[in-house]
Amino acid sequence: MTLSPAHDVEHGRRVASMFGRIARFYDFLNHALSLGLDIVWRKRLVAGIGLDREREGCVLDLAAGTLDVALEIARRHPRTRIVAADFTLPMLRRGQAKIKPDDAGRIFPVQADGLALPLPDASMDAATIAFGIRNIRPRQAAYAEMLRVLKPGARFCILEFGTGKRRIWGGAYNFYLTKVLPGFGRLVSGDAAAYRYLADTIRAFPDEDALAGELTKAGFTAVSHTPLASGIVFVHRAVRP
Description:
By secondary structure, the protein is an alpha/beta fold. The chain is built from 8 helices and 7 strands, in the order H-H-E-H-E-H-E-E-H-E-H-H-H-E-E. A hairpin with a 4-residue loop joins strand 6 (221-228) and strand 7 (233-239). Helix 1 crosses helix 6 (172-189). The longest helix has 29 residues, at 5-33. The two termini are 30 Å apart.
């Protein structure tokens, strides 16, 4: 189903409200529900952006949430500035408390819509998004915005769940996705709808080949992907030509 622009705007508002409600539980639940693997996955994402450690530059982290990816970029690339953009202000506020004084002049949290970023054309040396592309509609418009703000030759790296339709670990992961994830999320955060939404969007998400096709169709080149944790998540890489 193709959503109208009005539906897309309403979807964005609902998602922002939902993440605002669970912001104070977000980091704990991420680490607990992934058994700490989300930390490793984010490191793998940042390792793929293709920037030299000593190079000066500017990186966009879209759907920055509580800034874990932005902080990892700052750690790995001490001369890089990071625009940490997210639609949900309470998430950014939680993340801002993690910024150390030495990094305060390099990490810039910005409340922004991924479909209309407040950035000049061809201004970013790389871009990342972790567990956020599922929440942006339409994805094609987000890809177009990435192409607009990236410099020629810059990488766009996505960390995202694989499709929940594939049976993994004999179906154990699928049981976890449909039963354990919503139940534990509700128990800790008291917000059953938020974690049902998470499980539903993972199940509905395209597989890695379909996502690669979307990126190629959008105009990216050198599109590739790497499975992590038996394909529970993937790191996708693409280049602005």
